[in-house]
Design a protein that fits this description.
The chain is an alpha+beta fold and 826 residues long. It is 24% helix and 23% strand. Strands 1-2-3-4-5-10-17-16-13 form a 9-stranded antiparallel beta sheet, with no helix packed on it. A hairpin with a 2-residue loop joins strand 25 and strand 26. Helix 3 (436-453) packs parallel to helix 6 (556-573).
């Protein structure tokens, strides 16, 4: 298959060992570059919130694969995620040719230094210069580290000087016997360590001029660790405290094989069908591609041969398009290009009928909190977090970004148990917290999906009273309705306890937060009692302080997000649970009314999401939901007119909600939206989608599949409301992107959806290199300055691989929107 051809096909002609001493040069974007090798020097920085994300410092892209990262001075031999990281100060050109100099500092430890990266024959030199010799407190601790991707080296060998070793598939130690939990080196060299001497594509040698060099397996301390090459900084050293010569083997004239990307679920007969081909600029690209039909006897029948059309240059690659829209006959097809044939895909009228189903009945079910979840023989989770929750203390910033100011906005004292919160909700992502705004988004997304498209699907049994969920066991009730009720339980519980929405509920301790596996075992499900000993149990209480913390700050943005979700939920629940529907609507009205006097506090109390407009935008959405629920109540219609300046200012984010209000507003309201829709279309045709894929691709520190599917749904709603302005292409581009037509590879970003999909993700089971069916991963990250990455086999990069519950519910909406517009083209 072309998506994983990177190593297989690149090895053609390599075994003969045709290598060359590459000449690295500094590019205008301040990388060191030669054909087959890029050295990225501190273009990507350690996170101020999550610290070590494995995308910082000195990094190497060798033969198309980012194999090394985090080249920096570190204070631990195998740092964990929240270990201290250096702050980036600046990068300049050095005094020598093809040299880059980076200044960094540990302010708290009073350590500042420069790293010089200089091209030299066969590779590059790394030299660490300290401003002052190490403080005594860092002696024997500070050293220079460079981390290597484990999956690039599994099953391969290494040499420490001349002594051989084998990279272990699973960490086995050795471990220090001093109780520290630190790994001991796999090997220590006096001079040189060579990684994968047998493999021309991943072979790297590192020689130290200044002392021993060690190789560690950091996974022995944390599953997300990499293989670490490290040299300690000697006491008293200052200039040239560490000097390495790094020799990546570069295959002469190496070129990356083309990536042919397409929708892995396939295509309906009448819709446009355009595959994109991602090309190394040095690759001699054929002018034509071929569509073949797979026959019952295993043959390949040529259906269409056509010239590919240039889509220009983007990031580091050239792109070409292969248009096979003229092919409408149902069947199994594949694309042949440059001597390779892709995996198959379908053309069929029912291609998109079930692309959303697993996301609803499996992934969202697996993320449910406060219940036990079973799928036939498999137990995903025992009932979880039944000891929720304790009041978080004031004036703290939690390691996962939750913030609590001086006011608790709560009737409970710090550390006190808060009754009533151990119901409903979804664990947000690969971790186990309840993020209130995300839970509100899921609830509202599922309501919208039912109202706009219908989600008449029942594959799951949910018994809230018994805290039992069984996947693949229908119970006669729509799964979407049951999930909306589950989200409403948590949102209503917060309102009943506090009179307002809260930031969320999260683990108090780092070791507990890093838990992997069954959510039911993350806590002991017993209420914490400080009077008991740590291991003591008495009745339903224990002395173990593992109960999650509730961050209870009263913030307008969260209140309005919950008001909108509860108002929407009331519409979905009125037939099956009129009592809960009434409670939800009453709470929604109260929360909305509370915030109409003006927005005072900004943000949602987590991470750095503190846009001053966030509460104003949430007010628009909440007002629209109450307008829909009330079928046009003048109070909400008048308020929405007053909020029109907010709609204009934030239209790309509020367009979907704004157009849903049209049936309950006057003609003047619709007319006022026309120029905004026209501007949105112009942006969608221009800078917003200035790439070959026709969708907005994020270039920040988190990959952007969520914004792609949100774009797809928004453009669908604009198309339905203004068909004379907005067409269907945008929504189809969005579903094509997340189901395979994206940079780096062609895997569907929704696990198990499509012929080839992302099957190693960052979920609760990531330590098993596994997946959760139906979850959507963030996808393609642009590693600065220009390297699109979506790793196939390494689960622990959360910014590329972490499933989140609200992203997946947004995908359900976009998938149903794609189904709807595809039916228009039949």
């Amino acid at each position: 298959m072309i998506w994983n051809a990177l190593l297989g096909s690149a090895s053609i002609g390599v075994i003969a060992g045709a290598v060359h001493a590459q000449s690295l040069t500094v590019t205008p974007s301040e990388t060191l570059e030669t054909q087959g090798l890029t050295v990225i020097v501190d273009q990507n920085h350690f996170s101020p919130i999550f610290f070590d994300e494995k995308n910082a410092g000195i990094q190497m892209v060798l033969h198309g694969e980012r194999i090394a990262t985090d080249g920096a001075v570190r204070l631990d031999r195998t740092p964990e995620q929240w270990a201290p990281v250096p702050a980036f100060v600046g990068r300049t050109r050095g005094s020598e040719p093809n040299q880059l100099v980076v200044r960094s500092a540990y302010a708290q430890q009073k350590l500042s230094y420069s790293v010089k990266v200089t091209a030299e024959p066969g590779g590059f030199r790394i030299a660490v210069d300290l401003d002052q010799p190490l403080p005594a407190s860092l002696a024997g601790k500070a050293g220079f580290n460079l981390d290597f991707l484990p999956t690039a080296y599994f099953g391969k060998t290494y040499l420490v000087d001349a002594a051989p070793g084998l990279f272990p598939r699973h960490p086995t130690g050795p471990m220090a016997k001093d109780g520290s939990g630190d790994p001991l080196p796999l090997g220590s060299a006096t001079k040189t360590i060579t990684l994968a001497p047998e493999d021309p594509l991943t072979r790297v040698s590192i020689t130290s001029d200044t002392g021993p060099i060690d190789l560690y397996d950091a996974r022995a301390r944390a599953q997300n660790g990499w293989f670490v090459v490290r040299s300690l900084i000697a006491t008293g050293a200052k200039e040239n405290a560490v000097v390495w010569h790094v020799r990546p083997n570069v295959v002469k004239n190496w070129t990356r094989q083309p990536v042919v990307s397409f929708n892995q679920a396939g295509y309906t007969p009448g819709r446009p069908k355009v595959a994109l081909i991602e090309l190394d600029p040095n690759f001699k690209a054929p002018a034509e591609a071929e569509l073949v039909r797979l026959t019952a006897d295993g043959g390949k029948q040529s259906v269409l041969r056509a010239k590919v059309q240039s889509r220009g240059h983007w990031t580091r690659y050239d792109y070409a398009a292969f248009d096979f829209s003229s092919v409408r006959e149902p069947g199994l097809y594949a694309i042949s290009y440059a001597g390779q044939t892709t995996n198959p895909f379908r053309i069929a009228a029912d291609t998109y009928q079930r692309i959303w189903q697993t996301s609803l009945d499996t992934f969202i079910a697996e993320q449910m909190d406060h219940v036990g979840i079973r799928e036939q023989y498999r137990v995903w989770s025992a009932p979880s977090h039944l000891d929720d929750a304790r009041q978080a203390p004031p004036n703290i910033t939690h390691f996962d970004g939750y913030k609590m100011g001086p006011n608790l906005d709560s009737p409970f004292k710090a550390g006190q148990h808060i009754p009533g919160l151990a119901v409903g909700g979804w664990q947000d992502a690969g971790d186990y917290d309840i993020q209130t705004p995300e839970n509100a988004a899921v609830t509202r997304d599922l309501v919208w999906a039912r109202e706009l498209f219908g989600l008449d699907w029942d594959e799951t049994s949910i018994d809230e009273a018994a805290r039992k969920v069984e996947i693949r066991k229908p119970d006669g009730v729509e799964d979407a309705v049951q999930q909306i009720r589950h989200g409403t339980l948590q949102l209503l519980a917060q309102y009943k306890v506090f009179g307002h929405a809260i930031v969320g509920i999260v683990d108090p301790a780092l070791r507990q937060y890093a838990h992997l596996g069954d959510a039911g075992s993350q806590t002991d499900n017993r209420l914490y009692d400080a009077k008991l000993g740590v291991e003591e149990i008495k009745g339903g209480a224990s002395g173990t302080p593992d109960d999650r913390w509730a961050f209870t700050t009263d913030l307008p943005a969260n209140n309005l997000a919950v008001a909108g979700a509860l108002s929407a939920a009331s519409r979905a629940l009125v037939a099956s649970d009129p009592k809960m529907a009434a409670e939800a609507l009453a709470a929604a009205k109260a929360l909305w009314t509370k915030q109409q006097g003006g927005v005072v506090k900004a943000g949602d109390g987590r991470d750095d999401s503190s846009s001053p407009r966030s509460a104003e935008a949430a007010n628009v959405v909440a007002t629209v939901e109450l307008l829909l629920t009330s079928r046009g109540d003048r109070v909400y219609a008048d308020r929405l007119r007053q909020l029109q300046p907010v709609i204009r200012q934030n239209f790309p984010w509020l367009a979907g909600a704004a157009v849903r209000a049209i049936p309950f507003m006057g003609a003047d309201y619709r007319a006022a939206l026309v120029p905004l829709v026209q501007d949105m279309k112009a942006k969608a045709d221009g800078g917003m989608t200035n790439n070959p894929f026709g969708v907005p691709i994020a270039d920040g520190t988190w990959a952007g599949s969520n914004q792609v599917v949100s774009f797809g749904t928004t453009m669908y709603l604009l198309h339905k409301a203004f068909p004379e302005i907005v067409g269907t292409t945008y929504t189809l581009n969005a579903i094509d992107y997340v189901l395979g037509r994206h940079p780096a590879n062609n895997l569907s970003l929704v696990s198990t959806v499509g012929t080839a999909s992302k099957l190693i993700g960052y979920g609760h089971n990531r330590a098993d290199y596994s997946f959760i069916p139906g979850g959507m991963v963030p996808g393609v990250l642009i590693v600065k300055p220009d390297y699109p990455e979506a790793k196939v086999d390494w689960p622990f990069l959360w910014f590329e691989n972490e499933y989140t519950v609200s992203t997946t519910s947004a995908y359900i909406l976009a998938a149903r929107a794609a189904m709807a517009v595809a039916s228009e083209t039949q």
